[in-house]
Amino acid sequence: MEELIDLKRIFGAISRGKWYILGAIGLCVCIMSIYLWFIATPVYQSKTQVLVNQVDSSKTNIQAQDVQANLQLVDTYSAIVTSPRILKEVEKELGNKYSREEIANAVQVNSSSNSQIIEITAEYSSAKGATEIVNKTAQVFEKQIPNIMNFGDVTILSQAQYSKTQAPVKPHKSLMLTLSFVIGAIIGIMIIFVQTIFDRTIKSVEDLQEALGLTVLGTVNAFEPEQMEPEKNIEEGSFRNEKKNRTEAINRVQ
Fold this sequence. Notes:
Blueprint: H1 2-16, H2 18-39, E1 44-53, H3 64-72, H4 74-81, H5 84-93, H6 100-106, E2 107-111, E3 117-124, H7 127-149, E4 153-158, H8 173-198, H9 205-212, H10 225-253
Antiparallel strand pairs: 1-3, 1-4, 2-3
Main location: membrane
Keywords: Cell membrane, Membrane, Transmembrane, Transmembrane helix
GO cellular component, one term: plasma membrane
């Protein structure tokens, strides 16, 4: 029973302080919206795939051990993609349009297990920049890998395509707005609980009974002075009428 009463008090406090919750949610969502649309830098992503081989792919007689050797070298090829030698050449062929640090931060390499395919991804603040960086990185890698490894063959399977309507991959606006909504609700509820804990005023009969430790037998509603005036006037009028009637009765007797 006590747990039920406590739950009622909790929900009652939340109901009374709903404007705190709504205000906190509105504030957090507004701040997040300003950040997402006016402050945050959008990030665009482009991808390309390359097929790596230890032996020349033009050979028709490829043995199973050759395929296994290719798989074992995928990690090595992945590291070479982001090596300073490749990045320096990419920077040069792009006309120093992007610095080597920008290219290094933009390029990411992923490879699936038991696969000779390497996926090269570039994330940049513009869709065109991401497309240029990832395509040029794949081209330089394809051209340089025979010189670096003294063997091997790389084939570009797909190139990244630039589109003016391409949407950014970061920040995730819907996710961030949902997160700001949840954070605002939590902040509002915390404000209500803190206010309830430090608020010592009596708001109900139950609060009075708990504070004094006594049983409440009844309650009297509060009246404003203006509400008492009509009753006072009625009593005064009744008293004057009664006095007048008594005076008239005495006069008739005399």
